[in-house]
Write a structure and sequence with these properties.
Elements: H1 2-20, H2 28-39, H3 42-50, E1 63-69, E2 78-85, E3 88-96, E4 107-111, H4 113-120, H5 126-131, E5 136-138, H6 141-145, H7 148-160
Parallel strand pairs: 1-4
Antiparallel strand pairs: 1-2, 2-3, 4-5
Helix pairs in contact: 3-7, 4-7
Length: 171
Amino acid sequence: MKRLNWLAGASLVLGMSAAQAAPVMMSAEWAKGMCDAWNNDPVLTQKLMESGWIKNDKGRGYKVMQVYRQDCPESPKIELKVSDKDGKVTCTYAGKAETKLDSSADYLMWAETTRWQEMGKGEYGPKWAMFMQRLNFDGPMWEAMSNMGPFENFLLLVGKVPGEATKCPGK
């Protein structure tokens, strides 16, 4: 009986750790954590409103940021969709990329996993990352350059959202 109880307890602990494991970095599930983190960051929710950044949405009512890990070429991109909600730039969707990007309003960013981790830790910001070609970027460059503070906060979210980086996101 004691052996059975030990096995049941071990199974419960193993099941709990599997359930609590961080999602794969830049998977659709991980993106949801990015969305929550965005909505709890006053620089992203307020400063991007104050600067007028959110207004360049091509009349769609939202802007999109798609990101991916360059060293995971078979993995799907993920996206965050943000909108003006109640006077704040709010993440309203996070998951598998579903939007056809408009490069005059939306953003596509990609980097090697280690580079995403370095940026997420604040080891360097977006200017340095782009200058050194550690972060690849497509989108409205002038708009991004005018919003470097919030852009840096976006990159820091990568370090705040737990993610398993030894595996590539699945399809």
